[in-house]
Amino acid sequence: MSMLTKGKPSSAALAKERLQFIIGRERSEREGPEYLHVLSRELRELVHRHISVSPADVEIGVAHVDGQDVLEMSVLLPSKETAGGSGAHQAGGV
Amino acid sequence: MLTEIIVVTSGKGGVGKTTTVASMGCGLARRGKRVAVIDFDIGLRNLDLVMGCERRVVYDFVNVIQGDCTLRQALIKDRRINSLYMLAASQTRDKEALTEEGVRSVLESLKADDFDYILCDSPAGIEKGAHLAMYFADRAIVVINPEVSSVRDSDRMLGLLASKTLRAERSGEGVKEHLLLTRYNPCRVASGEMMSVEDIKEILGLDLIGVIPESADVLAASNAGVPVILNEESTAALAYEDAVARLLGDSIPLRYLEEPKRGLLARVFGG
Q1: Mean pLDDT rounded to a whole number for chain B
Q2: Would you tell me how many other CB atoms lie within 10 Å of the CB of residue B39?
Q3: What is the dihedral of CA B19, B239, B258, B268, to 10 degrees?
Q4: ipTM computed for the complex
């Protein structure tokens, strides 16, 4: 069975990753300290000041990884043609 | 002992709340505890069917609240286990019939009648019935399937338990929370198709009070109106029995987390 799934993550691993992201975000909205809201907003403003990306391409959230809360930020950079960058990159792990 | 009110909730429907209430209620009562199980799903009564006493329902929860009968008249005594009683949900379409004051007074009467445990079977969703089922709880069992929508909804319920309950409002502590994972299939976990116990614990940051293996016995039990915990040969029954022991404070390891070992005959004949 492991041969079939080799090379790509199992569907269970995908489910876990997606849940950790969305639950982290929902928890931080619900119960996170006030600074997280402010920090998220300021980080978004900072990104928009320097890069021309749509709001949907900036994801900020708190994930629960190995028993610790981790602030995760992912920015889908614009492609080379539109902004002179080097293709779409994911900048992760703040 | 003091009466403990336990809500069994999940957010998502169809994950095994009613099955859990019926089996845990039986399990606690079999250990000599005086137990009342209450169906909070106004308009969609079902605990009576799973408990197998649907023909004996004369009065329901709303009848008691509205003074049509006494609580004693509405409580249905289980015919298998002496100290187990059930209060049926009303079939009324009027969801407003269940009031906070009414629920409070029924729970207070049960406390005064020396019940050890009151198990509240919450409706799915986060509307009034679900709110009232959890509002007076001391503890909560959040039932989860190893599936994305169920896990996400359960986290939402954990948030509500921590804020929208009497305990949270009074002491800021919230209710004591337990997770119970149902429909667990170790074979599918091994092949990477299903999230594992460890995954669920990590995502939600809570320990599990029980893991119930996926089993044909669960459907057979509700078909028959005999809570699955009473089927001594079922792994689901033994897993529920373990969960009852843990609820009472025993610390015992989880079982049935691995693929069952196939015997030689099964391997030869592909059974």
Answers
A1: 94
A2: 29
A3: -80
A4: 0.84
CA distance A20 to B202: 9
Range with lowest mean pLDDT among A12-21, A27-36, A72-81, B176-185: A27-36
Give the Å distances, CA to CA, from B231 to A49, A71, B72: 65, 47, 29
Q: Provide the token pair at B108.
A: 């207070």
Contact A1 B152 (CB under 8 A): no
Query: Using CA atoms, how far apart are residues B236 and B148, in angstroms rounded to an integer?
Result: 22
Nearest chain B CA: its distance from A56 CA (Å)? 21
Residues 6+ apart with CB under 8 A from B135: B100, B103, B164, B165, B166
Joined together, the tokens standing for residue A2 give 């492991």
Cβ of B193 within 8 Å of Cβ of A18? The answer is no
Residue B45 and residue B91 in contact, taking contact as beta carbons nearer than 8 Å:
yes
**Cβ within 8 Å, pair A12-B190:** no
Cα(B133)–Cα(B140) distance, rounded to whole angstroms?
A: 10
Q: Partners of B5 in the beta sheet? A: B118
